[in-house]
Design goal:
- The protein is of the alpha/beta class.
- The chain has 2 domains: about 110 residues, Endonuclease, Chain A (2-Layer Sandwich), CATH 3.30.870.10; about 60 residues, Winged helix-like DNA-binding domain superfamily/Winged helix DNA-binding domain (Arc Repressor Mutant, subunit A, Orthogonal Bundle).
- The protein contains 9 helices and 7 strands, in the order βααβαββββαβααααα.
- It has a 7-stranded mixed β-sheet.
- A hairpin with a 3-residue loop joins β4 and β5.
- The longest helix has 16 residues.
- The termini are far apart.
- The C terminus is likely disordered.
Length: about 200
């Protein structure tokens, strides 16, 4: 089961905790991508103590979908008398589109547990660490892309993920914030700039 969740209230997380626990006990594979800006009230605290925390990731998502067995997708349907409805769609092109949307969100996501911790370094991918190291070496996106053998678009996506999770607005601030963490803890970023 794969889900994109743009908005979440704490009451909903609490309401489904027993259901979620049963799914985990039944070894149902699941992955939920939540929009951290869409967690209402103390939903983040409820998620932190939820059985699904290990299945939760954060990314900017704007549409709610749930994909079952890669064969059906549940999407929000029309409102009827101010009530929300859901549609179950099994058409292959719709399911493939939903899976593509989920995959794109997953590519820019970070583990929720790591994002809620004070130290984001454990979840940084090796390439994101290399990008940050090269940023601190004052290289431009195209130079970083060339050194790492990836596209400029990939470099910019990695910078955006690191910037968002560190809670800073600029790429300079991302390098500075990670540098402060390294100085304060005496640990490395986990990667040195490639030569």
């Amino acid at each position: 089961m794969e889900s994109l969740v743009p908005l979440m209230a704490p009451a909903v997380l609490e309401q489904f905790s027993d259901y979620d626990r049963r799914l985990i006990e039944d070894d149902v594979e699941r992955l939920d991508v939540y929009n951290p800006d869409g967690l209402w009230g103390d939903a983040a605290q409820v998620l932190a103590s939820s059985p699904i925390l290990s299945c939760a990731r954060f990314a900017s998502v704007t549409v709610q979908i749930r994909i079952f067995d890669r064969r059906a997708v549940v999407i929000e349907g029309p409102r009827i008398d101010d009530d929300r409805t859901a549609l179950i769609v099994t058409r292959k092109d719709v399911v493939d589109g939903a899976r593509g949307l989920f995959s794109a969100a997953l590519d820019t996501s970070v583990p929720a547990a790591a994002a809620m911790s004070d130290d984001p370094r454990p979840w940084l991918t090796p390439r994101q660490r290399e990008v940050v190291a090269l940023l601190t070496a004052d290289l431009h996106d195209d130079e970083i892309a060339q050194k790492l053998g990836v596209s400029v678009r990939t470099v910019r996506s990695d910078i955006e993920v690191v910037r968002r999770v560190l809670g800073v607005r600029t790429r300079f601030a991302a390098g500075f914030q990670l540098g402060r963490l390294v100085s304060a803890t005496g640990l490395s970023t986990g990667s040195e700039p490639p030569s």
